[in-house]
UniProtKB/TrEMBL annotation, chain B:
The keyword Iron-sulfur does not apply. This is ATP-binding cassette domain-containing protein. Belongs to the ABC transporter superfamily. The lineage of its organism: Bacteria, Bacillati, Bacillota, Clostridia, Lachnospirales. The keyword Phosphoprotein does not apply. GO terms for biological process: peptide transport; transmembrane transport.
Length: 296, 324
């Protein structure tokens, strides 16, 4: 009897948990823009994952006779200065660029938000210490910091992600802390304390959801910047190593031909732009889905 | 006005409680040597003007703020410095209802989750069904319709929000509730509803209230005993009836003379206080009201004691006999 009840409870619990997650997920894609963003992103990811199917040729295969060719049926997006097919390089390059951009921005957001929440919630000396540390941190130019970290850690996918995200952490921390300054005098935090909520639960269950909105928007906007940042790294021989294609690297390689062969710049640019747009639209949807005030 | 007799050992005993804040200009004596007792089922009104330390006093008693000095006893046990599990136990017995129902509810939690939070934390309820049942009972108790379970705070009006706040405070059936101006943010018609709800709940469940307010008509309606605070100190303490009929401290007289009168034949005679309110930062010894008191004399520069002038009537004024 007891055991049966217990099983019932756990299944009930599971169902409830799931249904809240699913209902939030459904609400993200309620609006047309978020739906468009979602479909676009799935489309882009599918193209990149299935690159061998859609590319039609090897992204590193050089065809000097056809170097710098204009877009045609044979080369959908033309070829670069070494005669490599741009379309194939964009598809294969997306694998790295998407992963670097999305995971890098996510890392930065998680790190920045955690620091900001801790600083904002505890206040006083803790806040001073964290925020002054962030000031020093952000005094070093982002690109320089990125290069230094990358050099220290050496090339490699995970190291590159760390290098890319670390420069954006102080900004995220500052933004979150600013939001919390407005929120931390509110009485619901005291109420949470009076009902025995732990500090961690007050910070991350009560405080965080009320200050997360600008971070979601900021993070989704930052993905494009992270992708181009990755290009800086590969340009100086860190990060993704040539000839492995990558969107940012394609942009920087194409910039010497901007007047004569703009298609070298145009297509990778469109790829980055579309990805940022898609994720941004979804980010807006997520922000709205998490805000009960915008519920219908 | 209610009339109740209280005897036996007190539920809450506050002894020489002090709460100082260090501010750039010095030490802010927000609560300075306050002592009183509250019995089971009693409502103690605490009145005073803005900034006199009423809310700080309430928060210090229930351990949302750490006392600088003094003691708070709950049923004879010192709770001033308990930590960990013991503090958890204390917090299940003392609760607070906040002033502003617009900021005291988490905007991201719906009503049932807000009320469920303390229930979950207590660990007393094992199954989801039990939790649901208890939540529904609490909502019923404070008069929130069942259909509002999944509503969010912004969808409710001030009165309903305050009811949610009350349900949350009541969730673990505390013995003592600090009501920190719970009706001052509400319309007058809603104020009456919420006050009556609080009084009905007290009759039903027998908990004690410490009712902090600056609204004298409210405090008259709900309190059994009243403390008058001025700049962190108690200046007068007696039963509600006594306070409104036979008040002795010059500050209490001035405060009560500010109640508007509706009797056209007998217009109010307001006692106008002159002078600046003294600063609670590094206050001088002696009566803090002296700088504005029409009866101030040299003796007022000495530290004042709260003395019992008649049964259960305490006044902190050295010239009380001469004035009255």
């Amino acid at each position: 009897m007891m055991a049966k009840e217990k099983i019932n409870e756990t299944t009930n619990k599971k169902r409830k948990k799931q249904s809240r997650f699913i209902s939030t997920f459904k609400r993200v894609f309620e609006t047309v823009p978020a739906k468009t963003g979602g479909i676009l992103l799935i489309f882009i990811i599918a193209l990149c994952v299935l690159a061998p199917v859609f590319a039609g040729c090897d992204p590193n295969e050089m065809d000097m006779a056809n170097a710098l060719a204009k877009p045609s049926l044979q080369h959908l997006c033309g070829t670069d200065n070494l005669g490599r097919d741009q379309w194939a390089r964009i598809l294969y390059g997306g694998r790295y660029s998407l992963a670097l951009g999305i995971i890098g921005s996510l890392f930065a957001a998680v790190g920045g938000t955690s620091l900001g929440v801790i600083a904002g919630y505890f206040g006083g000396q803790t806040e001073n210490l964290i925020m002054r540390f962030c000031d020093v941190w952000s005094a070093i130019p982002g690109t320089l910091l990125c290069i230094v970290i990358s050099t220290a850690l050496g090339p490699g996918f995970f190291n590159t992600i760390i290098a890319l995200s670390i420069g954006a952490v102080p900004n995220g921390a500052r933004m979150t802390r600013g939001q919390i300054l407005a929120e931390r005098t509110k009485e619901y935090l005291e109420a949470a304390e009076a009902m025995n909520c732990s500090k961690v639960s007050i910070m991350f269950k009560h405080l965080l959801p009320n200050v997360i909105s600008p971070t979601i928007v900021g993070t989704t906007m930052g993905i494009g910047a992270t992708i181009t940042q990755a290009a800086t790294l590969s340009y100086i021989g860190l990060g993704v190593q040539p000839p492995t294609p990558e969107w940012g690297a394609m942009l920087s390689a194409g910039k010497s031909y901007v007047t004569s062969f703009p298609h070298l710049l145009l297509y990778p640019g469109i790829a980055i732009g579309l990805t940022t747009l898609a994720i941004n639209l979804m980010g807006d949807g997520l922000r709205d889905a998490l805000d009960p005030k915008l519920r219908k | 006005m209610k009339k109740k007799e209280f005897s036996g050992s007190p539920l809450i005993e506050v002894k020489h409680l002090k709460k100082y804040f260090n501010v750039p200009a010095g030490t802010n004596h927000a609560v300075d040597d306050v002592s009183f007792t509250i019995h089971k089922g009693e409502t103690l009104g605490v009145v005073g003007e803005s900034g006199c330390g009423k809310s700080t006093l309430g928060r210090t008693i229930i351990r949302l703020l750490e006392a600088t000095d003094g003691q708070v006893l709950l049923e004879g046990k010192d709770i001033t410095h308990v930590q960990g599990e013991a503090l958890k136990k204390v917090r299940e017995q003392v609760q607070i209802i906040f002033q502003d129902p617009y900021s005291s509810l988490n905007p991201r939690l719906d009503i049932s989750r807000t009320i469920k939070e303390p229930l979950k934390r207590s660990g007393r309820f094992r199954s989801r069904a039990e939790l649901m049942k208890e939540t529904a009972e609490l909502m019923d108790l404070v008069g929130i319709d069942e259909r509002l379970r999944e509503a969010y705070p912004h969808e409710l009006d001030g009165g309903r929000r305050q009811r949610v706040g009350i349900a949350r405070a009541l969730a673990l059936r505390p013995k003592f509730i600090v009501c920190d101006e719970p009706v001052s943010a509400l319309d007058v018609s809603i104020q009456a509803q919420v006050l009556n709800l609080l009084m009905d709940l007290q009759d039903e469940m027998g908990m004690a209230y410490m009712f902090v307010t600056h609204d004298l008509s409210v405090v008259r309606h709900i309190s059994d005993n009243i403390c008058v605070m001025y700049l962190g100190q108690l200046v007068e303490k007696c039963s509600t009836q006594e306070l409104f009929s036979n008040n002795l401290h010059p500050y209490t007289k001035a405060l009560l003379s500010a109640i508007p009168s509706t009797d056209v034949h007998n217009p109010m005679k307001r006692i106008q206080l002159k002078g600046e309110i003294a600063s609670p930062i590094n206050p001088k010894p002696g009566c803090r009201f002296a700088s504005r008191c029409p009866h101030a004399a040299d003796a007022c520069r000495e530290p004042q004691q709260l003395v019992e002038v008649s049964e259960n009537h305490f006044v902190s004024c050295c010239r009380v006999a001469e004035i009255n």
